[in-house]
Amino acid sequence: MTLTAGVVAVQGDVSEHAEAVRRAGEVHGRETEVREIRTSGTVPDCDLLLLPGGESTTISRLLHDEGIAEEIVAHVEAGKPVLATCAGLIVAATDAGDDRVRNLGVADVTVERNAFGRQKDSFEAPLDVAGLDDPFPAVFIRAPLIGDVGEGVEVLAEWDGRPVAVRDGPVVGTSFHPELTPDSRIHGLGLFDNDGRAVAEDGAEPTPDR
Ligand code: GLN
Protein backbone atom coordinates (compact mmCIF):
# COMPACT_ATOMS: atom_id res chain seq x y z
CA MET A 1 0.00 0.00 0.00
CA THR A 2 1.26 3.45 -0.90
CA LEU A 3 1.44 5.74 2.10
CA THR A 4 0.05 9.26 1.92
CA ALA A 5 2.31 11.81 3.57
CA GLY A 6 0.95 15.29 4.15
CA VAL A 7 3.31 18.21 4.43
CA VAL A 8 1.71 21.21 6.09
CA ALA A 9 2.35 23.89 3.51
CA VAL A 10 0.72 27.05 4.84
CA GLN A 11 4.24 28.52 5.25
CA GLY A 12 7.81 27.27 5.70
CA ASP A 13 10.22 24.79 4.12
CA VAL A 14 7.83 22.41 2.40
CA SER A 15 9.65 20.93 -0.61
CA GLU A 16 12.62 19.76 1.49
CA HIS A 17 10.29 17.75 3.74
CA ALA A 18 8.49 16.29 0.73
CA GLU A 19 11.84 15.08 -0.63
CA ALA A 20 13.02 13.79 2.75
CA VAL A 21 9.88 11.75 3.42
CA ARG A 22 10.05 10.26 -0.09
CA ARG A 23 13.68 9.25 0.55
CA ALA A 24 12.83 7.82 3.97
CA GLY A 25 10.01 5.81 2.35
CA GLU A 26 12.45 4.41 -0.21
CA VAL A 27 14.89 3.42 2.54
CA HIS A 28 12.01 1.57 4.25
CA GLY A 29 10.74 0.00 1.06
CA ARG A 30 7.54 2.07 0.95
CA GLU A 31 6.18 4.19 -1.83
CA THR A 32 5.04 7.53 -0.50
CA GLU A 33 2.66 9.91 -2.18
CA VAL A 34 3.17 13.43 -0.87
CA ARG A 35 0.37 15.98 -0.57
CA GLU A 36 0.74 19.60 0.41
CA ILE A 37 -1.74 20.79 2.99
CA ARG A 38 -3.03 24.34 2.61
CA THR A 39 -6.71 23.92 3.45
CA SER A 40 -8.83 21.61 5.56
CA GLY A 41 -9.96 18.27 4.14
CA THR A 42 -6.59 16.73 3.25
CA VAL A 43 -5.24 15.74 6.68
CA PRO A 44 -7.90 13.01 7.17
CA ASP A 45 -6.53 11.26 4.04
CA CYS A 46 -2.95 11.25 5.34
CA ASP A 47 -1.12 8.37 7.01
CA LEU A 48 1.81 10.59 8.01
CA LEU A 49 2.11 14.30 8.66
CA LEU A 50 5.03 16.69 8.58
CA LEU A 51 4.96 20.05 10.31
CA PRO A 52 7.84 22.06 8.83
CA GLY A 53 9.88 24.93 10.19
CA GLY A 54 9.19 28.51 9.24
CA GLU A 55 7.59 31.15 11.43
CA SER A 56 5.56 29.61 14.24
CA THR A 57 3.31 32.65 14.78
CA THR A 58 2.25 32.64 11.11
CA ILE A 59 1.95 28.86 10.80
CA SER A 60 -0.18 28.49 13.93
CA ARG A 61 -2.49 31.35 12.94
CA LEU A 62 -3.05 29.93 9.45
CA LEU A 63 -3.64 26.41 10.80
CA HIS A 64 -6.43 27.70 13.01
CA ASP A 65 -7.88 30.05 10.37
CA GLU A 66 -8.04 27.22 7.81
CA GLY A 67 -9.51 24.64 10.19
CA ILE A 68 -6.42 22.43 9.83
CA ALA A 69 -5.48 22.65 13.52
CA GLU A 70 -8.29 20.40 14.76
CA GLU A 71 -7.60 17.91 11.96
CA ILE A 72 -3.99 17.57 13.12
CA VAL A 73 -5.16 17.02 16.70
CA ALA A 74 -7.54 14.27 15.47
CA HIS A 75 -4.69 12.69 13.44
CA VAL A 76 -2.56 12.47 16.60
CA GLU A 77 -5.47 11.19 18.68
CA ALA A 78 -5.84 8.39 16.13
CA GLY A 79 -2.20 7.49 16.88
CA LYS A 80 -0.91 8.44 13.42
CA PRO A 81 2.66 9.73 13.17
CA VAL A 82 3.74 13.35 12.93
CA LEU A 83 7.23 14.76 12.49
CA ALA A 84 7.37 18.36 13.70
CA THR A 85 10.55 20.34 13.12
CA CYS A 86 11.68 23.68 14.55
CA ALA A 87 8.71 26.08 14.16
CA GLY A 88 6.60 22.94 13.63
CA LEU A 89 7.66 21.73 17.06
CA ILE A 90 6.87 25.14 18.55
CA VAL A 91 3.34 24.88 17.13
CA ALA A 92 2.93 21.25 18.24
CA ALA A 93 4.02 22.01 21.83
CA THR A 94 1.72 22.79 24.75
CA ASP A 95 3.21 26.23 25.40
CA ALA A 96 5.71 28.47 23.63
CA GLY A 97 5.63 31.31 26.16
CA ASP A 98 4.35 33.61 23.39
CA ASP A 99 0.72 34.72 23.00
CA ARG A 100 1.14 35.00 19.23
CA VAL A 101 1.69 31.26 18.94
CA ARG A 102 -1.51 29.22 19.06
CA ASN A 103 -0.21 25.87 20.24
CA LEU A 104 -1.74 22.58 19.14
CA GLY A 105 -0.73 20.82 22.38
CA VAL A 106 -0.03 17.50 20.62
CA ALA A 107 3.47 17.19 22.09
CA ASP A 108 3.63 17.46 25.87
CA VAL A 109 6.59 19.85 26.04
CA THR A 110 7.09 23.55 26.51
CA VAL A 111 9.47 25.41 24.22
CA GLU A 112 11.41 28.63 24.24
CA ARG A 113 11.57 30.32 20.83
CA ASN A 114 14.91 31.52 19.44
CA ALA A 115 16.60 30.23 22.57
CA PHE A 116 20.11 29.74 21.24
CA GLY A 117 21.01 33.44 21.30
CA ARG A 118 22.50 35.57 18.61
CA GLN A 119 25.98 34.28 17.98
CA LYS A 120 24.70 30.75 17.83
CA ASP A 121 21.54 31.64 15.87
CA SER A 122 22.37 29.06 13.21
CA PHE A 123 24.86 26.22 13.33
CA GLU A 124 25.36 22.59 12.40
CA ALA A 125 26.51 19.91 14.82
CA PRO A 126 26.75 16.12 14.90
CA LEU A 127 24.11 14.96 17.33
CA ASP A 128 23.69 11.62 19.09
CA VAL A 129 20.07 10.57 18.68
CA ALA A 130 18.49 7.63 20.51
CA GLY A 131 17.69 4.95 17.95
CA LEU A 132 20.33 6.03 15.42
CA ASP A 133 23.66 4.23 15.25
CA ASP A 134 25.73 7.23 14.14
CA PRO A 135 25.47 10.95 14.94
CA PHE A 136 22.98 12.95 12.89
CA PRO A 137 24.12 16.18 11.14
CA ALA A 138 21.74 18.55 12.89
CA VAL A 139 21.15 22.00 11.39
CA PHE A 140 19.85 24.53 13.92
CA ILE A 141 18.32 27.75 12.52
CA ARG A 142 16.95 30.21 15.07
CA ALA A 143 16.00 27.06 16.89
CA PRO A 144 13.79 26.65 19.95
CA LEU A 145 14.89 24.84 23.09
CA ILE A 146 12.64 22.38 24.80
CA GLY A 147 11.90 23.30 28.42
CA ASP A 148 9.50 21.15 30.45
CA VAL A 149 9.04 17.62 29.23
CA GLY A 150 5.84 15.84 30.23
CA GLU A 151 5.66 12.40 31.75
CA GLY A 152 5.72 9.82 28.99
CA VAL A 153 7.79 12.01 26.69
CA GLU A 154 11.04 10.37 25.60
CA VAL A 155 14.03 12.65 25.08
CA LEU A 156 15.78 11.44 21.92
CA ALA A 157 18.64 13.95 21.84
CA GLU A 158 20.18 16.71 23.92
CA TRP A 159 22.39 19.68 23.12
CA ASP A 160 24.27 21.32 25.98
CA GLY A 161 22.25 19.23 28.41
CA ARG A 162 18.91 20.44 27.06
CA PRO A 163 16.47 18.34 25.01
CA VAL A 164 16.40 19.08 21.28
CA ALA A 165 14.52 16.00 20.03
CA VAL A 166 11.61 14.23 21.72
CA ARG A 167 9.00 11.58 21.11
CA ASP A 168 5.53 11.89 22.62
CA GLY A 169 3.58 8.87 21.40
CA PRO A 170 3.10 9.28 17.63
CA VAL A 171 4.70 12.74 17.59
CA VAL A 172 8.43 13.23 17.10
CA GLY A 173 9.64 16.81 17.43
CA THR A 174 13.07 18.27 16.72
CA SER A 175 14.49 21.73 17.38
CA PHE A 176 16.69 21.29 14.32
CA HIS A 177 16.00 20.79 10.59
CA PRO A 178 16.50 17.15 9.50
CA GLU A 179 15.02 17.97 6.06
CA LEU A 180 18.01 20.18 5.18
CA THR A 181 20.49 17.31 4.90
CA PRO A 182 20.43 14.32 2.52
CA ASP A 183 20.24 12.10 5.63
CA SER A 184 16.62 10.96 6.04
CA ARG A 185 17.10 8.91 9.21
CA ILE A 186 15.10 11.27 11.43
CA HIS A 187 12.17 11.06 9.00
CA GLY A 188 12.53 7.29 9.16
CA LEU A 189 12.72 7.33 12.95
CA GLY A 190 9.60 9.46 13.31
CA LEU A 191 7.41 7.95 10.63
CA PHE A 192 8.30 4.31 9.93
CA ASP A 193 9.09 1.19 11.92
CA ASN A 194 11.82 -1.33 11.09
CA ASP A 195 9.60 -3.19 8.65
CA GLY A 196 8.61 -0.07 6.74
CA ARG A 197 5.20 0.28 8.28
CA ALA A 198 3.88 3.70 9.15
CA VAL A 199 4.01 4.02 12.93
CA ALA A 200 0.21 3.68 13.28
CA GLU A 201 -0.33 0.81 10.84
CA ASP A 202 -1.54 -2.55 12.13
CA GLY A 203 1.30 -4.43 13.75
CA ALA A 204 3.78 -1.56 13.50
CA GLU A 205 6.40 -1.44 16.24
CA PRO A 206 7.36 2.12 17.13
CA THR A 207 10.73 0.96 18.45
CA PRO A 208 13.43 2.09 16.02
CA ASP A 209 16.82 0.43 15.67
CA ARG A 210 18.68 1.83 12.75
N1 GLN B 1 12.38 31.17 15.07
C1 GLN B 1 11.28 30.55 14.38
C2 GLN B 1 10.01 30.63 15.17
O1 GLN B 1 10.04 30.88 16.33
C3 GLN B 1 11.58 29.10 14.07
C4 GLN B 1 12.76 29.02 13.14
C5 GLN B 1 12.71 27.86 12.19
O2 GLN B 1 11.71 27.17 12.02
N2 GLN B 1 13.82 27.70 11.54
O3 GLN B 1 8.94 30.44 14.63
Automatic annotation (TrEMBL):
Pathway: Cofactor biosynthesis; pyridoxal 5'-phosphate biosynthesis. The keyword Ubl conjugation does not apply. Keywords: Glutamine amidotransferase, Hydrolase, Lyase, Pyridoxal phosphate. L-glutamine binds at G54, E55, S56, R113, I141, R142. One of its GO terms (molecular function) is glutaminase activity. GO terms for biological process: L-glutamine catabolic process; pyridoxal phosphate biosynthetic process. The keyword Lyase applies. Gene3D superfamilies: 3.40.50.880. It catalyses: L-glutamine + H2O = L-glutamate + NH4(+); aldehydo-D-ribose 5-phosphate + D-glyceraldehyde 3-phosphate + L-glutamine = pyridoxal 5'-phosphate + L-glutamate + phosphate + 3 H2O + H(+). Catalyzes the hydrolysis of glutamine to glutamate and ammonia as part of the biosynthesis of pyridoxal 5'-phosphate. The resulting ammonia molecule is channeled to the active site of PdxS. In the presence of PdxS, forms a dodecamer of heterodimers. Only shows activity in the heterodimer. This is Pyridoxal 5'-phosphate synthase subunit PdxT. It comes from Halorussus caseinilyticus. The lineage of its organism: Archaea, Methanobacteriati, Methanobacteriota, Stenosarchaea group, Halobacteria. The gene is pdxT.
